[in-house]
Design goal:
Layout (H helix, E strand, L loop, with lengths): L1 H32 L3 H17 L6 H15 L2 H17 L3 H18 L4 H16 L3 H18 L2 H17 L3 H15 L5 H18 L2 H19 L3 H5 L3 H19 L2 H10 L10 H17 L3 H14 L3 H13 L3 H76 L4 H63 L5 H32 L8 E4 H12 L7 E7 L5 E4 L1 H18 L3 E10 L4 E8 L29 H11 L3 E4 L7 E8 L3
Parallel strand pairs: 2-4
Antiparallel strand pairs: 1-3, 4-5, 5-7, 6-7
Length: 677
């Protein structure tokens, strides 16, 4: 203990001396360089102006690099972070991930050392989101968007929150999770209400309209179109210079094209005709494919609606020329079929199936590779932490052993001179024995760590084998039934297509479940506790599964306290309840499914229950079902990940998820959520 105190005092005195020397050095340096301060400021301004004059050209880069170097030397952090952000923007725009990562790492290291969070930190998270989104790396884009959202909430950065929700909405829209896309876009627009930025609103609203049209939520489409018009009117009320530089005509083309989509969906022929007569006046071929394709697709739907099939085909072919995707291709199949051109419709349908299969397989392969990468990174991080801890322990033991040997030598020398210290020598021998035993224990700890690493590798191999098995069954069904389509009659073809659709949905569901489980178990995941209306949360979870409930099954909801406010992560709580309700739907063919919550104020907790009248769960399976890929009935579709995800979320929320062993009329799951602080 005394040696430790002496060591600490020595370090403290040494630190004081170093700080004092640095202070004198800075004082002397300031005296020497006062005459150069003005010169450095002028050089910084000159480099900054030269970089601005060469905006988005290769000549911009050397000026920015010189600006970074000079600003770092004179500690001008404003210019420093501005130059780093511009370098990130440049390399993001030319799609160079290596250079983007290099400058992003520099920002991370500097901000960590200085313990500050400049705007450049938020800028680089935006750049990463944009890069991964453009390159189809949707899982990585989602991870960066979540990190941007967490940092923005921590630092109360409103712009970052809006951007993160916009990126999340785009990712969800691209991977077919339209409900989640709506939630993210609406959150971004709600945040924008605090800012007067109608141009930003008009950037998000068209994507929100696409999601609502996919979901066939026409009332929301109407209200969103009203919001679209209000934002346009704000732009038109601005000063002439701002108004003239904004593409108002293109936005109006998008507005009325979506109005046409709405009227066609409502089968409102008079309104549709009125809109068609107005829409061409806002159309300009120079607007670009992002606008013209929306216009042509809306016109194709209209002509299909009025049964002008030749004109509908001409319009849809314009769309396919710039956007060869499943949505316009499916519309073309429907038009050909309605026109009686069955052979052409079958040919286009075969192309549609091939495109969907290719898209799904590509998306699944990409996401699986991303999952493996994330899994390997997490596993590598754990192993590195274990090895670091073991090295630290071994170093301490070696230091202790060295010190003990040194002390032993000194004592032996003293023993040779003074025989009165024989008792000390005996004690020293005992100490050496203890050190040897400690070293043996350290060796044993290393052996155990090696076995744990081998077990971790075995679990990883088992995980990959299980997911490969789950993938193979639906994928084989898709490929097999796709080959049978050409020789099948109409009835068989419809049945085969239904099977292909079900297996495709199964594949996408499996990928989303595996990715969710990976994120929940990674160190990067964090729970965001906010006020949540439990009644609203439960009703939202029920609405998501209502369309899957079998006929004759009653879906019920009860609560001990209406609209009770709980501190929790709203999205993750909904996901947990949705997984429990989805499980109940699978196994309940008749009877009822009830969702209930009870507020236990005495124990400061809320008890949720999901009860069904299905086949129930055997007692010996009531804990096994929470393991990955575990199934009670192998003939029921599903990968066996919903309940493990639900339990993981429950644990992250500080609660528990169990099966009621006393309930014998089906199954009852009990989730206990403690009150938040």
């Amino acid at each position: 203990m005394e040696r430790c105190c002496m060591k600490e005092r020595h370090i403290y005195v040494k630190g004081v001396l170093i700080v004092f020397c640095l202070f004198l050095s800075d004082l002397y340096g300031s005296c020497r360089t006062d005459g150069k301060t003005d010169d450095a400021g002028e050089r910084l301004k000159a480099l900054y102006e030269l970089s601005r004059q060469n905006w988005e050209t290769p000549m911009e880069v050397p000026y920015l690099k010189s600006l970074v170097e000079l600003a770092g030397e004179v500690d001008s952090m404003g210019y420093y972070y501005s130059a780093l952000s511009s370098l990130g923007r440049y390399y993001c725009n030319i799609n160079r991930l290596d250079s983007l990562t290099y400058w992003g790492n520099m920002v991370d290291s500097v901000t960590k050392a200085r313990r500050e969070t400049p705007l450049a930190k938020f800028d680089f998270l935006n750049y990463y989101c944009r890069y991964y989104l453009i390159n189809g790396e949707y899982e990585l884009a989602m991870n960066e968007a979540v990190m941007l959202q967490m940092l923005s909430k921590e630092k109360n950065n409103m712009t970052g929150l809006i951007s993160s929700n916009e990126y999340l909405g785009l990712v969800y829209l691209l991977i077919g999770r339209d409900s989640d896309a709506v939630t993210a876009f609406e959150e971004a627009l709600d945040l924008l209400k605090t800012k007067s930025k109608p141009d930003y609103e008009l950037q998000i609203i068209p994507y929100l309209l696409i999601a609502y049209l996919h979901l066939d939520e026409l009332d929301h489409v109407k209200s969103t179109l009203v919001r679209f018009e209000e934002s346009l009117r704000k732009i038109e009320s601005y000063k002439s210079d701002i108004r003239e530089n904004y593409p108002i005509k293109a936005k109006k083309c998008l507005l009325y094209a979506n109005y046409l989509n709405l009227y066609v969906a409502e089968k409102n022929l008079p309104k549709a005709r009125e809109t068609v007569s107005l829409l061409p006046s806002y159309m300009d071929e120079s607007m670009g494919p992002d606008v013209t394709s929306v216009y042509d697709l809306a016109m194709a739907r209209y002509y299909f609606f009025i049964k002008d099939y030749p004109q509908a085909l001409r319009e849809i072919d314009k769309v396919l020329a710039v956007d060869y995707s499943s949505e316009p291709l499916k519309l073309k199949v429907d038009i050909l079929k309605a026109a009686g051109r069955t052979d052409e419709a079958l040919k286009q349908y075969a192309e549609l199936l091939s495109l969907v299969e290719q898209t799904n397989v590509t998306a699944f392969t990409r996401q699986l590779n991303q999952l493996r990468m994330l899994h390997d990174l997490n596993d590598k991080k754990m192993q590195e932490q274990k090895l670091l801890y073991q090295k630290r322990q071994l170093s301490e033991k070696q230091l202790q052993l060295t010190a003990s040997i040194l002390v032993s030598c000194i004592l032996l020398v003293l023993l040779y001179v003074l025989f009165r210290y024989s008792n000390r020598t005996r004690k020293l021998k005992n100490d050496l024995q203890v050190e040897r035993e400690t070293l043996i224990e350290t060796t044993e700890s290393l052996r155990v760590a090696k076995e744990q690493a081998e077990e971790s590798n075995r679990l990883k191999t088992s995980f990959v084998a299980n997911i490969s098995h789950e993938i193979r069954t639906p994928l084989n069904a898709i490929v097999g039934f796709a080959d049978l389509l050409q020789d099948a009659d109409e009835a068989e073809r419809n049945e085969y297509l239904k099977i292909i659709k079900n297996n495709t949905d199964m594949l996408l569901g499996l990928v989303n479940d595996v990715l969710d489980l990976s994120r929940l178990e990674s160190d990067s995941f964090s729970v965001i506790l906010e006020d949540c209306d439990l009644s609203e949360c439960c009703q939202n979870a029920q609405e998501r599964i209502r369309h899957r409930v079998q006929p004759g099954v009653k879906l019920g909801f009860t609560a001990s306290d209406d609209h009770f406010i709980l501190k929790t992560d709203d999205l993750r709580l909904q996901q947990l309840l949705n997984n429990l309700l989805s499980n109940a739907v699978k196994f309940t063919e008749q009877g009822e499914i009830n969702l209930d919550y009870r507020v236990d104020r005495e124990n400061r907790q809320v008890v949720f229950t999901v009860t069904d009248t299905g086949c129930g769960i055997p007692l010996d399976k009531q804990e096994v079902i929470f393991d990955r890929f575990a199934k009670v009935n192998e003939f029921i579709p599903g990968a066996g990940l919903g309940l493990p995800i639900a339990r993981t979320i429950a644990i992250r929320l500080g609660g528990t998820l169990t099966v009621d062993p006393d309930y014998d009329k089906g199954a009852r799951f009990i989730f206990v959520h403690p009150f938040g602080e």
